[in-house]
Every structure is written in C-alpha cells, then in structure tokens.
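Data card: per-record layout.
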Amino acid sequence: MNKHTFAIAFISFYLAANSAFSVEPIKFMFESDTAGWEIPDWAESQKDCVGKFAQVSSAFSHNKSGKSLEIMANFPGNNWTQAIVEKKLDRDLTGYKEITAYVYAPKNAPTGFLQARVILTVGSWYFVESKSVTPLNKGKWVKVSAKLDVDDKNQSTYWKYSTKKEGMGLVENIDRIRKVAIRVEYNASTKNYGSPYKGPVYIDDITIE
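The structure for this 209-residue chain is written out next.
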C-alpha cells in the first residue's frame, strides 16, 4: 500500500469512526404545535402540581419562530408547588452530553421564588431529576441545563433519584430514556412565602445534544 492509498484509507476510517459516535441534536422550538409536550395525566391527582394547561403561544419567544410553549399555572405562594410539562421520548441518548431549555417568567411574576430544572424518566420507569436548579429572572429568558455525559463515579453529583437502588440511575439506563420533562417550581413554604401567582410561564428551545 503506497502513502497515498494509506492516507485515503486512514481518513475514511477516521470519518466512519466519528460518524458512528456522532449524534444529531434533538430540538423542540414550538413553531406550530406543542410537539407532544404536555402536562402529564398523573399531575392532575397531585396537590402540589398547579399547571392547568399547556399551549403554543406567540406572546414571548426565545427564537426566530416567534412562538413558545406557554404553561398556565396557579401558584398559591405559601408552599412548594410545581408546573411540569413532559415529552414521551423513548430514545437511546448514549453519546449525548446535555439537555438545555430556556424558561421565561413574565415581569409580573413573583420575585425570588420561581426556579426550574430538568426531570427524566428512565429504564423501567425510574424517576431521576437534575440536582442543578436554576432561579428564574422575571422578564428574561433563563437557560436551564442538565448534564448527560456522566459516569458511575460522578452521576450522583448531577442527578438524584426517587430510590437509590442499584440499576436505577441515569448511567445504567441512558439507552432507555422514556420521558424528558421541564419542571417550574415555586420554592415557597409556610415560613418563607411569596405572593400568589396565577399566570403563564414560557419554555422554548429545548435541545438535547
């Protein structure tokens, strides 16, 4: 094999190897519909779930489409409550590094209590949530993210689980991601409460890459 042939063979191998490990970004921009994102049925029976409905809205947008996902919620302000939307995924996310989303709270939303995080349902329907929670800044789009490229040693740094039994973590189930969700929380209590807020929050540009 001459040098020219060897170089071509090496480049072909390199490109094939990288192609095998490359992943296409998964994006949700809400240009025309909710893309399957919805308030889950189970939330209706939970007292701390205060999201009423989700729909596409042109009131605010983070991207050029001019639209986003609007969640109407009724936060009482005197205890911890949540408004959650989720998407059925059923995907192998091996090779993906991060989930990001942009969340917007209107200017009339309460200050200092609203925050957001990423939630996953994995494997045999195990529930894991990002330890990283992002405070919302009213009147501004805020980036919310969660790390996917974790290993056995550091996954507990980034994710917490409803149960800590072996086999229920993200690493063990990265090839079976059932659902992905964004949860907006009103982080209040009876001792540390804010004003009630009955109104919308907005989510846009959800990306898995």
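Known properties of this structure: Residues 5-20 have pLDDT under 50 and may be disordered. The radius of gyration is 20 Å.

See the next section for split statistics.
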